[in-house]
Amino acid sequence: MGIENRAARTLLYEEVVRDLYQIIDEEHLRPGDKLPPERELMEQLDVSRNVLREAFRVLESRGVIVSHQGKGRFLRKQSHLRESTESLSKNLERCSMMEAYEVRQLLEVKGVEMIIRNASEKDIDELENAYKVLEKRFIETGKTKGEFELHKLYAAKTGSVFMTQTLEIVLNAIFDMMYGKFSDILEEVSGEEELESHRQIIGAIRKREKDKAGKLMYEHLQSSIDSLK
Fold it and tell me: Which of 33, 140, 146, 198 can pair with 29 through a Cys bridge, CB separation 3.0 to 4.6 Å?
């Protein structure tokens, strides 16, 4: 499988992860409850078995679900990361979106600097090809759906498990807010501008230009902050 196809699948299974969270919430599953059967979820989400299983692996790594051979997958009784995300999301609801984005901005600027220090050329190839997938999707649909997953991919390439997990918690919590009461405001940010920002950020990462990449990420997120003013 080529790098571009891997990037496309990465964006897809991250979407499936979010869909699974939604199913857990909508069906009011409690710790210890069994998830719907694999085939039922494949049909409901219209995804392949491989993509669904990749999403399951993500949820297992986050401590959200546990698999029992021959029995299925169950909501883990102690889901610490999910609890942390929900707790942070509730706390963010008491903050302004401006405050939440300013925290995100600080973390992601530092994250880009860590990518430049730690990422391999293959890691940067994956970022570039994830961008191409996003660009292709925008050309076809006029929407930048999947842009949030590209930010998660930045987090994954920092080379720090702690930074990756911290950013993921923050991004997931902000995502819940973004697509609630703030979605209309944030849609004012131009899709073309978002794409151009990512192109420049990844270009600076490729050249290992730490200061430039950090400045570009800061400005990229500042455009969203400005739309909230």
Answer: 33
Domain 81-227, what fold?
Four Helix Bundle (Hemerythrin (Met), subunit A) (1.20.120)
Residue ranges of the chain assigned to CATH 1.10.10.10: 3-78
pTM for this prediction: 0.62
Instruction: Kindly report the CATH class assigned to 3-78.
Output: mainly alpha
Radius of gyration of the chain (CA): 18
Question: Encoding tokens for residue 86?
Answer: 């929900």
- Provide CATH 1.20.120.530 ranges for the chain: 81-227
Q: Which two tokens stand for residue 73?
A: 């997958």
